């Protein structure tokens, strides 16, 4: 089964999740990094504090420096001091010049401040001599990342939520578009629009939903044809039953008025009852064959034996006709059922019925390739070329120029369905010298493979 939709969803969700995780991680790191530096305005303030402390220290006014530091600590609610660093190597150690140049008691104002540290770091502004430093614990108001917690909520909750909702909407639309079309088609079909189809609306889409649309179209096509066929069969059957019912009514009226003998009335009613019974039975059989497409029970029959029996019955029923046959010695069938016998019998009887008295019905059976060719020729008036296929439709009537109705009724339609159920095929064609020829193709059984060593 095609699982393209499954793989599309799996790949989309998996790739989207990994991509979303990577993007959020990147954004979080970049945002945290950008928010971890002291604002340039506060950096300048700290540098100004260091410059002021250096000026007071160079002036040698210790009281003024002390007083200023007290004021600064009270104003900023922090700790600040001026410290002299005297580095003395021990045990003969030698300090590298680079160490002396880079030595600091705290952080430079341009350094990154880690937002996850609870304590504020100590900032270090060196004096010009490189040995004296103004140090201050970073005031809380200058600490970076004031909105970091809100940014975290935005990046780790709000952003994934928005992205996932957007992806869900896209996937929902991708799934619901064909389902809505299928729903609309189902509703239209239930309202009697049997020609509605879905697959063409999906374009080049080829996934499980497209397969569902194909299944719906096949169902709609078969169901629509069945409903229309049933409607037509009911309408045609109702029309066909009117004639024998009318004759029954006339016979009863004549009997009431004593215009005919009771025996004649009973015979007429019995005849019309038989016609109606056969018509109803044939119609029900045809409807069953068309609706159910049954696999008929197969029997081992020889087509020659079957034809011999049918020809004998037809010769007895039509003694004024010559029914000739050209048959091989045997003709086994690949698949056969009792309904095939009824179909061939109806076709031969139909040929004899349309052949004038004294005429000939010729039956020829030959094998060509993988099929038996059964040809049934009559000497009737034939059928116009445009109606050669219509005669196999139920209740089709062919009107002649003299306005007499030549009826093909339901017999040929039933015969075609019965032959198709036996995996055969039937068609009609006009003979060059007049008359109609029925061509029936039936499969020749394949020989069984020989066992090894035989």
Characterization of this structure:
It is a single chain. Strands 4-5-6-10-9 form a five-stranded mixed beta sheet, covered by helices on one side. It has a three-stranded antiparallel beta sheet with strand order 1-3-2. Strands 7-8 form a two-stranded antiparallel sheet. Strand 7 and strand 8 form a beta hairpin. It has ten helices and ten strands. The relative contact order is 0.07. With 454 residues, the chain is α+β, with helices and mostly antiparallel strands. Helices cover 52% and strands 13% of the residues. The protein has three domains: 95 residues, 2-Layer Sandwich (Beta-Lactamase); 85 residues; 141 residues, Histidine kinase-like ATPase, C-terminal domain (Heat Shock Protein 90), CATH 3.30.565. The C terminus is likely disordered. The two termini are 43 Å apart.
The domain count comes to: 3
Tell me, what is the CATH class of the largest domain?
Alpha Beta
Number of DSSP strand runs: 10
Give the overall pLDDT as a whole number. Answer: 81
Helical content, roughly?
Answer: 40-55%
Shape label: rod-shaped
CATH superfamily of the largest domain: Histidine kinase-like ATPase, C-terminal domain
The SS-based structural class is alpha+beta
The biggest beta sheet is recorded as: 5 strands, mixed
């Amino acid at each position: 089964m095609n699982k393209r939709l499954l793989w599309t969803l799996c790949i989309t969700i998996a790739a989207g999740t990994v991509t979303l995780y990577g993007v959020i991680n990147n954004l979080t790191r970049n945002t945290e990094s950008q928010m971890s530096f002291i604002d340039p305005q506060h950096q300048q303030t700290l540098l100004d504090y260091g410059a002021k402390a250096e000026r007071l220290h160079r002036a040698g006014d210790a009281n003024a420096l002390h007083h200023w530091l007290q004021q600064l600590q009270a104003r900023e609610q922090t700790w600040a001091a001026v410290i002299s660093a005297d580095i003395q190597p021990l045990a003969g150690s030698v300090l590298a010049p680079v160490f002396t140049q880079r030595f600091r008691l705290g952080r430079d104002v341009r350094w990154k401040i880690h937002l996850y540290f609870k304590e504020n770091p100590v900032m270090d502004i060196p004096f010009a001599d490189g040995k004296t430093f103004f140090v201050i614990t970073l005031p809380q108001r200058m600490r970076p990342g004031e909105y970091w917690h809100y940014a975290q909520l935005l990046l780790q909750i709000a952003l994934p939520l928005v992205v996932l909702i957007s992806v869900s909407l896209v996937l929902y639309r991708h799934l619901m578009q064909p389902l809505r079309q299928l729903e609309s088609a189902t509703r239209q079909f239930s309202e009697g629009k049997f020609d509605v189809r879905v697959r063409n609306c999906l374009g080049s889409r080829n996934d499980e939903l497209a397969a569902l649309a194909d299944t719906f179209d096949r169902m709609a096509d078969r169901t629509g044809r069945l409903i229309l066929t049933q409607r037509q069969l009911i309408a045609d059957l109702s029309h066909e039953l009117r004639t024998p019912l009318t004759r029954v009514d006339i016979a009863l009226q004549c009997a009431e008025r004593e215009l005919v003998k009771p025996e004649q009335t009973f015979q007429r009613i019995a005849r019309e009852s038989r016609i109606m019974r056969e018509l109803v039975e044939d119609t029900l059989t045809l409807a069953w064959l068309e609706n159910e497409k049954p696999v008929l029970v197969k029997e081992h029959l020889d087509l020659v034996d079957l034809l011999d029996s049918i020809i004998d019955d037809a010769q007895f029923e039509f003694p004024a006709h010559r029914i000739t046959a050209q048959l091989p010695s045997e003709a086994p069938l690949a698949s056969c059922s009792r309904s095939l016998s009824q179909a061939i019998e109806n076709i031969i009887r139909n040929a004899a019925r349309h052949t004038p008295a004294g005429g000939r019905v010729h039956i020829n059976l030959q094998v060509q390739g993988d099929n038996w060719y059964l040809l049934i020729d009559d000497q009737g008036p034939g059928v116009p070329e445009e109606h050669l296929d219509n005669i196999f439709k139920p209740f089709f009537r062919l009107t002649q120029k003299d306005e007499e109705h030549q009826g093909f009724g339901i017999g040929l339609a039933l015969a075609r369905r019965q032959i198709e159920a036996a995996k055969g095929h039937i068609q009609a064609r006009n003979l060059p010298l007049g008359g109609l020829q029925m061509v029936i193709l039936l499969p020749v059984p394949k020989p069984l493979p020989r066992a090894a060593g035989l």
